[in-house]
Design goal:
This protein is an alpha+beta fold. Helix content is about 30%, strand content about 30%. Helix 6 crosses helix 9.
C-alpha cells in the first residue's frame, strides 16, 4: 500500500476507461490469408453501419457500450459522424494489446461529398468473440494542434470546462457536459458516471467546483501524444499544505473536442519539510515503532491505534475501513508475523524524495526466524516529526 497520492483516475479507480489505453505493437492486416477475427468483426460492424442496419450494429457492441449507451443514443452518435454516408471503406491497420483481447482498427473511407474520412473502432473480446467498444469517424486532416504550450489558453479552456461542471451541479442537468466530451469517451461513460465524478469532487473538502475555477494554475507543461492532448492543472492551498491536482484531456484530431476532466488527486505540499533523512539509528527506531503499532493492531483485530499514528493528510484521504482491508495476508492469518524480530531490523536504505511534499522512504529487512522479510515504509513531515503514510511488504529485497 503506498498512499502518498490519492489518485482517482477513473481508468484505475472507478472502472471508467476514459484515459487512452496503451496497446502493444502487435499488428495484423485485413489482407492476411486468414483475416484476424477482429478484422472480420470490424468489417461486419462497419457494413451494418453503412447499410443502415443499426439494430445489427448495436447488437455487435460490447455489453459495456450498451450499458452506457441506449439504442437511441447510439443512433444519435451514428448520425453525428455521418457513418451511414460512408463508402469505399477499407481497413488499413490493426493493433492488438499484449493479450490479444483489446484491438484498435483503422479504416479509410469517403463521406457523401467524396471527402476522405478515417474510421476507428476499438473492440474487446467478450464471450469468445470481438465486440465494439468505441467507434469514431473523423476528417483525414486533423484540426490545428491544441495550445498545450500556451498557459493562458490552457487556463481559459480548463476554466470553461469547470464552469460547465459547476453549472450542471447547480441545475442537475449534465446533458451539455456529456455532449462536450469526445465521442469515443462518451461511448464509454454515461451521463450518470460523469455526474458521479463531479459530485464526488464537489463534496470533497477541496470543493465546491465553483470555488476552484479562478484558482486554477498550470502545474506543468502539457503534452501531445497519439492525437491526444493532456493538460496538467492545480489548485494550490498553501494554508492547508495541500495541492489539488486536476488532469484534462482533449482529442486534437477531433475538431469538436475540448479539454475535459479525466483525473484528480490530492497532494501533500509542504515546502518546509526536511530535505535530509534522519540518522540510521533514528530511522531504525522510527520503523520499529511503526511496525510495532501495526502488528499490535493485527493481533488486536483493529488498526485504530496505527491509524491515529499516521499523518492528518493520510487520514483525510483514507478512511480506517480501507486501511484495515489493505493487509489481508496478515489479518487473514496467511502470514505468521508473531516471530518477526522487530528489535533487530536492518536498514537497507533511507532517502527523502519528491519536491512538492517530500517523503521519507525507509527500506528495511526484518528477521523472521527463517528467511528475512522486507518492507518499505513511507513518511510525511506534516507536524513536528515524520509520520507514516504507508507500508509495503516484500518477499524480496527491494534494493536489489
Amino acid at each position: 500500500m503506498n498512499p502518498l497520492k490519492h489518485q482517482l483516475h477513473f481508468l484505475c479507480s472507478r472502472g471508467l476507461p476514459i484515459v487512452a489505453i496503451c496497446l502493444a505493437s502487435t499488428q495484423f492486416s485485413a489482407a492476411q490469408e486468414q483475416p484476424h477475427p477482429g478484422v472480420i468483426a470490424a468489417e461486419a460492424f462497419f457494413e451494418a453501419l453503412v447499410s443502415g442496419e443499426l439494430d445489427a450494429a448495436y447488437q455487435a457492441a460490447s455489453d459495456q457500450f450498451r450499458r452506457n449507451q441506449s439504442f437511441d443514443v447510439f443512433e444519435e452518435q451514428v448520425a453525428e459522424v455521418e457513418a451511414t454516408d460512408l463508402s469505399a471503406l477499407t481497413i488499413t491497420k490493426g493493433t492488438a494489446s499484449a493479450d490479444g483481447k483489446d484491438l484498435q482498427i483503422t479504416a479509410s473511407a469517403r463521406n457523401g461529398d467524396g471527402k476522405k474520412r478515417i474510421a476507428n473502432i476499438r473492440l474487446i473480446e467478450e464471450g469468445g468473440t470481438f465486440k465494439m467498444l468505441t467507434f469514431t469517424v473523423k476528417p483525414a486532416i486533423p484540426s490545428l494542434p491544441p495550445p498545450v504550450n500556451d498557459p493562458d489558453k490552457t487556463i481559459e479552456l480548463t476554466r470553461e470546462t469547470l464552469t460547465y461542471l459547476a453549472t450542471a451541479l447547480e441545475t442537475g442537468d449534465f446533458t451539455e457536459v456529456h455532449e462536450r466530451i469526445p465521442l469515443e469517451d462518451r461511448q464509454q461513460n454515461s451521463i450518470d458516471s460523469i455526474e458521479a465524478m463531479a459530485r464526488q469532487i464537489n463534496a470533497s473538502s477541496y470543493g465546491p467546483i465553483a470555488d476552484l475555477i479562478d484558482r486554477l494554475e498550470v502545474r506543468s507543461k502539457g503534452e501531445m501524444k497519439d492525437g491526444s492532448a493532456s493538460y496538467f492543472l492545480a489548485v494550490n492551498l498553501p494554508e492547508r499544505k495541500r495541492q489539488f491536482q486536476l488532469d484534462f484531456r482533449s482529442l486534437w484530431s477531433d475538431p469538436k473536442s475540448e479539454p475535459w476532466l479525466v483525473g484528480w488527486r490530492f497532494i501533500y505540499a509542504n515546502p518546509d519539510s526536511p530535505e535530509t533523512a534522519p540518522t540510521k539509528n533514528a530511522s531504525l527506531t522510527l520503523a520499529q515503532q511503526t511496525l510495532e503499532v501495526l502488528f499490535a493492531g493485527f493481533t488486536a483485530g483493529s488498526l485504530s491505534n496505527y491509524y491515529e499514528s499516521t499523518t492528518p493528510f493520510f487520514r483525510e484521504v483514507f478512511p480506517l475501513e480501507r486501511v484495515e482491508q489493505a493487509y489481508p495476508a496478515f489479518t487473514g492469518g496467511e502470514v505468521d508475523y508473531q516471530n518477526w524480530q522487530l528489535d533487530s531490523l536492518e536498514l537497507l536504505s533511507k532517502e527523502v524524495v519528491g519536491s512538492i511534499g517530500p517523503n521519507l522512504v525507509l527500506k528495511i529487512s526484518i528477521p523472521t526466524g527463517n528467511s528475512a522479510a522486507f518492507a518499505t515504509l513511507t513518511y510525511l513531515h506534516e507536524g513536528e516529526s515524520w509520520e507514516n503514510v504507508g507500508i509495503n511488504f516484500h518477499s524480496k529485497n527491494p534494493v536489489e
